[in-house]
Specification:
Layout: H1 2-22, H2 39-47, H3 50-68, H4 89-108
Length: 109
């Protein structure tokens, strides 16, 4: 039991360390803000509510502005590992699945 607890703590602390090392949280970004915008991601963004897209655009513009100014946000405004929720990844997975089904359907019929 102690080994399992140590492994969980180690993995969680390692994840936090890697998350903070990546640096995007210092600009107020979340993981899904960094996705490459291919056709699947664009379709997923189209399916999101407008207020979520507006929040994403604000974070991206703020990050660009901070980068140009060569500054970062104050530490209390950084995105925390615990607060970083995947808002776009589930929709992207659904879009990819639908696209694969459509391609399979077109191939067979």
């Amino acid at each position: 039991m102690a080994l399992r607890t140590t492994r969980v703590l180690y993995n969680n602390s390692l994840k936090k360390w890697c998350y903070n090392l990546s640096g995007f949280n210092k600009y107020g970004l979340v993981r899904d803000d960094l996705l490459y915008e291919n056709e699947d991601v664009k379709e997923a963004l189209r399916r999101l509510p407008d207020h979520v897209v507006d929040e994403r655009n604000f974070r991206l513009i703020r990050a660009i502005q901070l980068s140009l100014q060569k500054t970062i946000l104050p530490k209390e405004e950084w995105t925390k590992f615990e607060e970083d929720k995947l808002y776009l990844t589930p929709i992207v997975k659904q879009v990819k699945k639908e696209r694969a089904e459509r391609e399979n359907w077109e191939k067979e019929y």
